[in-house]
Design goal:
The chain is an alpha+beta fold and 503 residues long. The protein has two domains: 139 residues, OB fold (Dihydrolipoamide Acetyltransferase, E2P); 256 residues, 2-Layer Sandwich (BirA Bifunctional Protein, domain 2), CATH 3.30.930. The protein is built from 15 helices and 20 strands. The chain binds one RNA strand of 76 nucleotides through helix 1, strand 1, strand 2, strand 3 and strand 6.
Length: 503
RNA sequence: GACUCGGUAGCUCAGCCGGUAGAGCAACGGCCUUUUAAGCCGUGGGUCCUGGGUUCAAAUCCCAGCCGGGUCACCA
């Protein structure tokens, strides 16, 4: 146990003194509220008969004591409102303890209180609650950072240390209203997406997080062990193969918000656990999915920000449909002058090398093309753009292109040079699928760490029973949340980003 | 993993050319019945991230480590 600071000791003493006055600092009974700070401030008009008897609850965030009367600020989940507290009104009798002792001395910033009174405007025009009753609802024993905002809206002494903010997110949320807002927007994003899918008639499903074979993507999994079965289990790196089994089972459309786990590096855009949304729709192809995706994102942007436009760092982006479609071949041609069509692995290898790209022998054709695109093209797509028709080798779950056997019917949606969505006309030929899995195994053995290392034979069996033509699409929800809230770090859109343990 | 910047009071930070540890807010005592980054007078508060080293003397210089940010590498 670490030594208590001066201020923590004072608060514990205040707690004891409150008990000595016969007040329970942690009462069990509910506190009835009939309004909130934002409702009062936005709807109150001077002279109106509304808000004559309001009751709200929240944290005491500021005390300005001026002798026998005081101003204070109360913060509830909606915002802050000023309180006016007059000694003789909260203490109508002879005993002035509630004001002189409890309010002035024993209540600390951060304490939860409930107040009742009428709403009025002070002579400076600030909507305030004239308090007639004040009740302590819960004591706070640690001092919160005190963040002040002046008349011009400038924030003083902001609580900004990223380590403290992420480790003690609860404090961050209390004192930084803009942080609370990020997560409200994140929730609106998920809600809007669900609504869009449900309105289209698709079914929200849940599939295993604990998987015996980590499939559907190539990434290092977290491994655990099931004691009773005595087998290794993996936290899912993707849910794709399970959703396709459900399409085999006969649903027209299924989707899942999937918490995925990848045992890889962490940086501004990667957290070991993250949220993907995947959707699969029967009898559709990737062209249909492109239109569906751009309408979806337009809908979500409006739901979150009230407009299709969004700001991300220095970029202004517009999610209004439709989005440009560029083939991967054309993208590489545009940015390098090199045409990948019909080139052999050797030719691609030389071309990449000449472009200054680090190449090695483990790279197959698809990987080389992907490297060229990643190095030379990706970062220039700022506005939402569909990059389409990826090489076959790097898309083992995707159907061969209807017009070119070297390509697949795949698109990725790029925003600000980053991948936001990935979609296919799904491969449903079980024999082709088996061969692609086997190629992946070979690539893996050759040293390509991105290639899949497992073959899911049950998934192949499901395909053998027949899967209708299907298009599937996945969205990195954290990344999308970053774009819609103008945050360049994934940590800002996760309540509790992964951190090394303290001490 | 590499490079780089940082870690000093509850919070935000200064001090870093070595010589008794500072400010603002917060806290504590006092004054104040419409203030609002309230104000005025007074007071207390520190493992200067940890461990070594150099030195008469280290928050400050050197080495190692821990934690965090950024950049890069990695990342379907």
């Amino acid at each position: 146990m670490t030594k208590l600071s001066e201020q923590e000791l004072v608060r514990r003493e205040n707690l004891e003194k409150i008990k000595e006055l016969g007040i329970n600092p942690f009462p069990a009974d509910l506190y009835e509220v009939n309004s909130n700070a934002t409702e009062i401030k936005s709807k109150f008009e001077e002279g109106s008969e509304d808000f004559k008897d309001v009751s709200i609850a929240g944290r005491l965030m500021m005390k300005r004591i001026m002798g026998k009367a005081s101003f204070a600020e109360l913060q509830d989940s909606t915002g802050k409102i000023q309180l006016y507290i007059n000694r003789d009104e909260i203490c109508p009798g002879e005993n002035k303890d509630m004001y002189n002792k409890v309010f002035k001395k024993l209540l600390d910033i951060g304490d939860f209180i409930g107040v009742r009174g009428y709403v009025f405007k002070t002579k400076t025009g600030e909507t305030s609650i004239h308090v007639s009753e004040l009740k302590l609802l819960s004591k706070s024993l640690k001092p919160l950072p005190v963040v002040k905002v002046d008349a011009e809206g400038n924030v003083h002494d902001a609580f900004t240390d990223p380590e403290l903010r992420y480790r003690q997110r609860y404090v961050d949320l209390v004192v930084n209203p803009h942080v609370r807002e990020i997560f409200v927007k994140r929730a609106k994003l998920f809600q809007a997406m669900r609504e869009f899918f449900n309105n289209a008639g698709y079914l929200e499903v849940e599939t295993p997080v604990l998987q015996p074979i980590p499939g559907g993507a190539a990434a290092k999994p977290f491994v655990t062990h099931h004691n009773t079965l005595d087998i290794p289990m993996y936290l899912r790196i993707a849910n794709e193969l399970y959703l396709k089994r459900l399409i085999v089972g006969g649903y027209d459309g299924v989707y899942e918000f999937s918490r995925n786990f990848r045992n890889e590096g962490m940086d501004r855009t990667h957290n070991p656990e993250f949220t993907a949304m995947e959707i699969y729709v029967a009898y559709k192809d990737y062209n249909w999915m492109m239109e569906f995706t751009e309408k979806l994102l337009e809908h979500c942007a409006i739901a979150v920000n009230g407009t299709t436009e969004a700001t991300f760092g220095e970029h202004k982006i517009d999610f209004k449909a439709p989005y440009k479609r560029v083939t991967m071949r054309q993208a590489i041609l545009d940015h390098t002058g090199f045409d990948i069509k019909g080139k052999t692995e050797g030719e691609l290898y030389e071309a990449a090398k000449n472009m200054g790209i680090e190449v090695d022998d483990s790279m197959g054709k698809g990987k080389l093309i992907d490297e060229i695109f990643g190095e030379k093209c990706e970062s220039s797509y700022i506005q939402p753009t569909f990059i389409i028709d990826y090489p076959k080798e790097m898309s083992p779950l995707c159907k061969m292109h209807r017009e070119d056997s070297e390509l697949t019917e795949r698109f990725e949606l790029m925003v600000c040079g980053k991948e936001v969505a990935n979609a296919y006309s799904e491969l449903n030929d079980p024999i082709d699928q088996k061969e692609r899995f086997e190629e992946q195994l070979k690539l893996s053995e050759r040293g390509d760490e991105e290639a899949a290392q497992f073959i899911d034979f049950d998934f192949l069996r499901a395909l053998e029973y027949g899967m209708p033509p299907t298009s599937g699409m996945g969205i990195g929800m954290d990344r999308l949340a970053m774009f819609l809230t103008n945050n360049e770090s994934i940590q800002e859109v996760l309540f509790f980003p992964q951190m090394k343990p303290e001490k």
